Amino acid sequence: MSPRLAAAALPLPPPTAAAAARGVAVPRPRTVLPWASVAFSSPSSCRGALACLVRLRCSCHSAAAGAAVEEARRGRKQLGMTPPLYDYLLSNVREHPVLRELREETAAMRGSQMQVSPAQAQLLAMLVQIQGAQRCIEVGVFTGYSSLAVALALPESGRLVACERDERCLEVAKKYYQRAGVAHKIDVKHALAADSLRSLLNCGEASR
Ligand SMILES: C[S@@+](CC[C@H](N)C(=O)[O-])C[C@H]1O[C@@H](n2cnc3c(N)ncnc32)[C@H](O)[C@@H]1O
């Protein structure tokens, strides 16, 4: 992982006593995330197999929730998303209108809790832009929310390999790729991801 992206994926420092003493307002919460696995490859890192693998976990800072945060950091417990917290996120996130439509359709579907949050998708899109990524891989598309966010952030010449085993999920995803005008950037692989990735390697895609 490049140092820049490593820094972007680090948990935030908790509010400090010094900041409190200065009367500085400490923003919270910063991120509330399920998880996502996306790999980015940029021109500067084409010689490496993958530039970055980001695994994001829930992180929320609050003086009252110190013990719960500590437990979450150790992976024992995840903090819940309250309705006011989710409203706060939605009102502060940049969301493409087609992403919004997809989120609304997904909300009515079984397994909708698997979708990444709009804030998480925005972070993934930002990482694509910071890295100048040209090639990305997503393992686990579901209905396509994070892959659509990544594809929208990629340049016209960029490509995303999107791996998913569930055909019904892919039907929804492909509809929204078309609607957003980014279908040409996405190579959908309907299979077990390990098989799709192995076949990429067999086709000479190693280190690309
Ligand atoms: C947490 S969801 C992904 C959420 C998605 N990134 C989004 O933004 O909505 C995980 C997805 O991975 C898929 N999946 C699980 N194991 C898989 C495998 N071995 N190969 C391909 N897809 C897999 C599941 O069908 C499910 O749709």
Automatic annotation (TrEMBL):
Any one of the GO BP annotations: methylation
Superkingdom to which the source organism belongs: Eukaryota
Record-annotated membrane-spanning stretches: none
Record bears the keyword Transferase: yes
UniProt keyword Transferase present: yes
GO MF entries: O-methyltransferase activity; S-adenosylmethionine-dependent methyltransferase activity
Keywords attached to this entry: Methyltransferase, S-adenosyl-L-methionine, Transferase
Protein family per UniProt: Belongs to the class I-like SAM-binding methyltransferase superfamily. Cation-dependent O-methyltransferase family.
Protein name: Uncharacterized protein
